[in-house]
Design a protein that fits this description.
Blueprint: H1 3-15, H2 28-34, E1 46-49, H3 57-63, E2 67-72, H4 79-97, H5 112-132, E3 137-139, E4 152-158, H6 170-182, E5 184-191, H7 204-212, E6 217-222, E7 233-238
Helix pairs in contact: 3-5, 4-5, 6-7
Length: 239
């Protein structure tokens, strides 16, 4: 990455306030189901989780022998601030979910209290790992990433693209998708393919057409994970 791009990202990160970020994440076990992963096959694999947020995937994958790295805009902030922000965001999210619980499938977590336990576990495992292995957690501002071309065998991206379709326009989706593919050597997986209403991203076909000429193999695959009703499909792009 050029120095100009590095400076641009650094400037954008420093201008961002912590209260503009939602710091919440999923557990390793959720990642396994969301992305149809086989934990025994992770050893020796280089993996990027982007945006990684407060997810525990990187910590647990590294314990299994993977070379995992997480990238997120939030990692520009100090660890204690992230811990406090994560706890506050979890409390807020649980209050909001209690108002719209009919839009979710509770087989995954049993109840809002059960979900809170899992979200707090993900926060604890991720921030503990940040304290012990800070080099695994890289500050980055999409659609730019501070990694060389084809650095990772596998890139995972959860609950960002498509999820926030009402806030992120098609151009941002296109540029971010191309950047994720740039740093990926093998396969990019994105979950879910639905927006926050549970409907398939409305501009998916246009987005995929933007990368079709590169010769990538693209598929949409139903997974074993469904918490938000209708959000149970991942996008797989193979290079």
């Amino acid at each position: 990455m050029s120095e100009n791009r590095r400076e641009e990202q650094t400037g954008r990160s420093s201008a961002l306030e912590l209260d503009q970020i939602v710091f919440i994440g999923r557990t390793f076990e959720e990642y396994v189901r969301m992305f149809d992963l086989r934990p025994e096959e992770l050893r020796g694999t280089s993996i990027l989780d982007c945006p990684g947020g407060a997810c525990s995937f990187t910590a647990r994958a590294c314990e299994l022998g993977a070379r995992a790295v997480a990238a997120d805009i939030a990692y520009a902030f100090d660890l204690e601030s992230l811990r406090l922000k994560g706890q506050a965001d979890i409390d807020h999210t649980m209050r909001q979910l209690s108002k719209v619980s009919d839009g979710f499938r509770w087989e995954e977590h049993g109840s809002i209290d059960g979900l809170k336990v899992e979200r707090l576990r993900a926060l604890r495992e991720s921030t503990d790992d940040m304290a012990n292995f800070p080099e695994r957690y890289v500050s980055a501002v999409l659609p730019g990433l501070p990694f060389e071309d084809e650095r990772f065998d596998l890139t995972l991206s959860a609950h960002f693209l498509f999820t926030y379709a009402d806030q992120l326009d098609l151009d941002f989706h296109v540029r971010t998708l191309r950047e994720l593919l740039r740093v990926t050597k093998g396969e990019l997986r994105i979950f879910p393919t639905a927006d926050r209403s549970g409907k398939r991203y409305s501009q998916m076909d246009e987005l995929l057409a933007s990368v079709a000429d590169s010769g990538y193999s693209v598929s949409e695959v139903k997974t074993a994970y469904e918490f938000q009703s209708g959000a149970h499909t991942m996008l797989i792009i193979r290079k």
